[in-house]
Model the fold of this input.
Amino acid sequence: MRKRLILLFVIFVALYFLLHIAYDLPNLVNGHSRFLGMPASMGDLIGRLLEIVLYFLFALVPYLLFYHFYPRRVAPAIVLTVIALPIIFYLCYKTGRDVRLKSYFLNNIFYAFLYTVYGLVFYFIRYAQHKELEQKDMVIQNRQSELSFLRSQINPHFLFNSLHNIYSLMYQNAAGAQDAILSLSDLLRYMLYDASERVPLQKEIDYIARYIELQKIRFDHAIHAPLRVTGDTAALPIVPLLLIPFVENAFKHGDFSGMEEGVEITIHAGPRSIYFHCVNRKGHGLKDAAGGIGLQNVQRRLALLYADKHTLKIDDTDNHFTINLELING
Done:
């Protein structure tokens, strides 16, 4: 508030001198300017400063009234402003000297109107700026809330699938189930504690590799699920848990009955881009109702976090489901 009032006063002083110079311009051209002349005495100097302060009230009072009442109570702001102006007029001419009507209109009504308008314009400009910042802040908060919600959906979805797989394994291979629980613990630690706003791409790749190993326990035979990585994966940042829904979808709805086809994942780290490719052979079983949550989730996160800095292509054929994603950093 203090900074706003200082700015209001500084601009007012500049406006005050500019208006009076313009009014006195004919005399200024002829070298007989009265306004710009140095005060002849200390009394003249005090009078000039007092005039500036009194005229400043025409801008300050409307500004403060609207600041206090607008927009909740517009009527009191207008009424009090109208009441305050005659009081300021009285203070400006509380000298006891005679005042001509022409001088009164030129030196009081005219300037008072301009200064009052200035105070109101200054207020509404600042108000518009405040509302714009408030709107941007609200958009950011809503965006963060939505991202938090989307992020929270990933963990239960993945946890449910993993626990189901480990539960099935316990009846077949108790030792393997123990290893799977340890792997799941590492994954959950990353999801809950290590995943900040951005992580190195290599961390996300390590997460995907552990996830693939955890998924292999579902099968009683070896499956085709290579993960190929190229480029400098330690240098590029990525939003955590962004790629895993694609991989999870591939394992959930893929056909791993054969040894030659299953899922293939390729990740390449370019100078400023990340390329992700995932293709899986489609199973012909029916999808459950929740099958699309992961993909819808990641598409929304991409729209929020990468906006115009990503390209996502999904190719869904009779036998294969392919994801091609490019992320641009910077």
